[in-house]
């Protein structure tokens, strides 16, 4: 009896309680690389999108394709959108890890067609550039990768990336004098031969952007390949360095909706906002990664003196090689292993 | 059972009852051990077995020896393997050279002074390996503290290559692993009864003979424990060689990381693990044999 009355009391409370909103504000989770880059993305993309769509965007960080593969194959997808390197997107697409994108929702105009695919789309650009220390070379430092490879004319300590073999192989092809529009498809064996020529003169192989920056900053090396964001930071900090986008290697990042995302439709709308010219134009205001949407440069949001420092600005983009994600989808593993075998001999 | 010793049979009427008792007791013991055995089985034997199983399949899922064949075919694997053991031997040797005198000194100090000094040995444990490695980078690099001082003092004109190479890896790892040698060694030295030493000297042994013939052999179990710990830790080291080696000192663990995360080839990565495990166990067996029974207590047997 007592028990019953207790239950009925509960029922009464339940009936009379104010009707809860049928659904709380919808939440999606977006994963990116963390650090200053993700902070910039939060200001440029996530916050304006959350405000405009009236949703909550939760952030997480990713280590890349392995994380997505684990979530999708383990049927435990916790991200609705995640960032990846373009070659990872191409590989994951081949493995069927992502949801199809709806280009009726996402406006692809202004994005390089090479970065618009059924289930992934570009989001931003990083460049690999050649940096040298001006306290060692003045303004007569190595300007091209052929100069970097020329150890007689430009003596000094050198660093290249070993963690991103694909970028170093592109650079090695450029060092052989291959013009920027002929680098792709990369002749991997030829590029490896080129690496073989320089590897004895490399004083440090770096695996992270922070490491590349530290090597140059502390004068541990006199010239290096480096990501433009890190190079820009060094310059801003007043380090005696010089770099340009000539013969840079443009690498795109991309975004995907992992297969099995529970908020696919909102994620699609959010992604459409992220790649829109208006929000894309925000990105270079906070970080050196260039917008993937060319129309961002027409919004008038980016000051003209800033545009010349952005790697994906049309003026700069045409001096650089665009990493071909689909080429690396098919060749990355094999080429990376050959590259590692070569430099670890 | 057919080779039952003759005297056991002749011992008489109780034999069968005793045998049944013994069997019951061993079953009881097995029962008591079973939770532990199950735990070890689940968290050690099963995963290692699975690792071994994975290593037998190539990327297409076919049963093959391809994952092992690459060790012979690729020069870089052999290079990496040799580097790993070279580093492990050198670091262990340096740890012994530095750690033995240090532990000896600690064991001879008065208790108070010894505990203060021990704090300095243990203190680095509370700092992350990553932080200590970066600190070494700051100290050792081309424009780091050491090179700047030496150049300012006029001792050298060109900076010494101390970081981003083999030397840097050795210095960094020796520093990080030293406490692992000192602590067990110190414990075993403290346990040596000073009366043995007095007795030796009483019988006319000079100090060096007392040390080498009495103290040193008694400290061997502690030394062996320390050496084994340091050596095994060396084989699996990752952070310090990755940062201090400038990408030129590639150890086995780094190769494993590349294989699993970069090439996503779990079979090949497992094969690396299996080979390292097998070689390590082989070396431990060899080591045990070399040091003989004196160090046997390290493995808990008599």
Can you put this structure into words, describing what you see?
The complex is a heterodimer of chains A (345) and B (302). In chain A, 43% of the residues lie in helices and 19% in strands. Chain A contains 16 helices and 10 strands. Chain A has helices at 2-16, 35-53, 65-73, 86-94, 134-137, 145-149, 165-175, 188-198, 209-217, 228-236, 264-274, 277-280, 283-286, 304-307, 314-317, 325-343; strands at 27-32, 56-61, 81-85, 121-133, 158-161, 202-206, 223-227, 241-256, 290-291, 321-322. In chain A, strands 1, 2, 3, 4, 5, 6, 7, 8, 9 and 10 form a 10-stranded mixed sheet that branches. In chain A, strand 1 (27-32), helix 2 (35-53) and strand 2 form a beta-alpha-beta unit. In chain A, helix 2 (35-53) packs across helix 11, helix 4 (86-94) packs across helix 16 and helix 8 (188-198) packs parallel to helix 16 (325-343). Chain B contains 13 helices and no strands. The longest helix of chain B is centred in the N-terminal third of the chain and has 40 residues, at 15-54. Chain B is an all-alpha fold and 302 residues long. Chain B has a single domain (76-290), classed as MetI-like (MetI-like fold, Orthogonal Bundle). Chain B is flat. In chain B, helix 6 packs across helix 8 (166-190). Chain A binds chain B through residues 63, 65-66, 69, 157, 162, 202-207, 211, 214-215, 218-220, 333, 336-337, 340-345, and chain B through 74-76, 79-80, 137, 141-144, 163-164, 242-243, 246-248, 250, 255, 258, 261-265.
Task: Please sum up the structure shown.
The complex is a heterodimer of chains A (345) and B (302). With 345 residues, chain A is α/β, with parallel strands linked by helices. Chain A is built from 16 helices and ten strands.
Query: Runs of chain B with pLDDT <50, length 5+?
Result: 298-302
Radius of gyration of chain A: 24 Å
Largest interface pair: A-B, 27 and 25 residues
Q: How helix-rich are the residues of chain A, as a percent range?
A: 40-55%
CATH topology of the largest domain in chain A: D-Maltodextrin-Binding Protein, domain 2
* Poorly predicted ranges of chain A: 6-22
């Amino acid at each position: 009896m007592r028990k019953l009355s207790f239950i009925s009391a509960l029922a009464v409370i339940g009936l009379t309680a104010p009707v809860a909103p049928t659904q709380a504000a919808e939440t999606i989770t977006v994963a990116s690389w963390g650090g200053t880059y993700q902070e910039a993305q939060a200001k440029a993309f996530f916050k304006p999108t959350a405000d405009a769509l009236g949703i909550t965007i939760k952030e997480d960080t990713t280590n890349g394709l392995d994380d997505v593969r684990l979530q999708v194959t383990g049927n435990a997808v916790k991200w609705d959108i995640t960032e990846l390197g373009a070659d990872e997107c191409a590989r994951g697409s081949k493995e069927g890890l992502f949801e199809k994108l709806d280009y009726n929702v996402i406006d692809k105009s202004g994005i390089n067609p090479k970065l618009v695919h059924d289930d992934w789309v570009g989001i931003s650009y990083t460049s690999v550039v050649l940096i040298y220390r001006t306290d060692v070379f003045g303004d007569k430092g190595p300007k091209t990768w052929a100069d970097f490879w020329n150890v007689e004319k430009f003596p000094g300590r050198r660093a290249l990336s070993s963690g991103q073999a694909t970028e170093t192989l592109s650079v090695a092809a450029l060092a052989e004098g291959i013009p920027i529009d002929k680098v792709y498809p990369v002749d991997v064996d030829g590029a490896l031969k080129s690496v073989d020529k320089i590897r004895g003169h490399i004083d440090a192989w770096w695996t992270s952007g922070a490491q590349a920056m530290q090597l140059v900053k502390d004068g541990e090396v006199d010239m290096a390949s480096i990501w433009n964001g890190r190079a820009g930071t060094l310059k801003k900090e007043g380090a005696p360095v010089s770099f340009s986008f000539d013969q840079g290697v443009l690498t795109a990042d991309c975004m995907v909706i992992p297969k099995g995302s529970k908020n696919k439709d909102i994620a699609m709308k959010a992604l459409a906002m992220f790649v829109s010219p208006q929000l894309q134009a925000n990105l270079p205001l906070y970080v050196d990664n260039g917008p993937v949407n060319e129309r961002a440069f027409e919004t008038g949001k980016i000051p003209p003196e800033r545009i010349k420092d952005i790697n994906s600005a049309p003026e700069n983009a045409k001096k650089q090689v665009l990493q071909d994600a689909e080429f690396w989808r098919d060749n990355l593993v094999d080429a990376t292993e050959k590259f590692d075998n070569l430099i670890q001999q | 059972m057919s080779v039952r010793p003759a005297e056991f049979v002749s011992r008489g009427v109780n034999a069968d009852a005793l045998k049944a008792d013994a069997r019951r007791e061993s079953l009881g013991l097995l029962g008591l051990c079973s939770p532990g055995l199950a735990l070890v089985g689940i968290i050690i034997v099963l995963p290692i077995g699975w690792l071994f199983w994975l290593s037998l399949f190539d990327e297409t899922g076919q049963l093959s020896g391809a994952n092992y064949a690459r060790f012979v075919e690729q020069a870089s694997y052999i290079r990496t393997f040799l580097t790993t053991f070279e580093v492990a031997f050198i670091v262990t040797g340096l740890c012994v050279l530095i750690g033995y005198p240090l532990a000896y000194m600690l064991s001879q100090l008065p208790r108070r002074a010894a505990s203060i000094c021990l704090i300095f040995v243990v203190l680095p444990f509370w700092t992350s390996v990553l932080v200590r490695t970066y600190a070494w980078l700051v100290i050792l690099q081309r424009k780091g503290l050491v090179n700047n001082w030496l150049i300012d003092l006029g001792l050298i004109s060109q900076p010494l290559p101390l970081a981003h190479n083999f030397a840097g890896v050795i210095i960094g790892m020796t520093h990080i692993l030293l406490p692992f040698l000192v602590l067990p060694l110190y414990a075993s030295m403290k346990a040596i009864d000073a009366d043995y030493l007095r007795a030796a000297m009483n019988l006319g042994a000079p100090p060096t003979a007392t040390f080498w013939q009495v103290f040193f052999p008694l400290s061997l179990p502690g030394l062996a424990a320390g050496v084994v710990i340091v050596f095994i830790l060396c084989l699996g080291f990752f952070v310090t060689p990755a940062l201090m080696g400038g990408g030129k000192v590639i150890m086995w663990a780094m190769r494993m990381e590349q294989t699993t995360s970069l090439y996503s080839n779990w079979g090949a990565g497992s094969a690396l693990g299996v080979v390292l495990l097998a070689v390590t166990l082989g070396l431990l067996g060899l080591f045990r044999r070399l040091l003989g029974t004196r160090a046997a207590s390290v493995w808990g047997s008599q």
